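User: I'm preparing a small set of examples for a lab meeting where we compare how different chains pack in three dimensions. I only have the primary sequence for this one, and I'd like the structure in token form so I can line it up with the others. Please keep the answer compact; I'll paste it straight into my notes.
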Amino acid sequence: MNGRLLPPGRAQRGASLLEIAIVIVVLGVLTVLVANVATRHGRMREEHARRDLLERADDAIIAFAAAHDRLPCPAVDSAGDEDCG
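Assistant: Understood. Below is the structure token output for the 85-residue chain.
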């Protein structure tokens, strides 16, 4: 007996456990890289939106000061009515 389970002349087919493990590792690494890029892109988009909002707020305060020769007073309630005290 030669220790082979297949008859002579017949080639073995299929993937070995090592080959499958390598494929799984490569897919895992690619998944992590794609997730990293997507997360970074989302953070950059949020940062851009935050900066845009701050710029609009600055422009509104400057426009108010130019129109009224003063800065706006804080509101005492959520209605937005000024209380210059």
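A couple of notes for your slides: The mean pLDDT is 87. The chain is about 60% helix and 0% strand.

User: Perfect, thanks.
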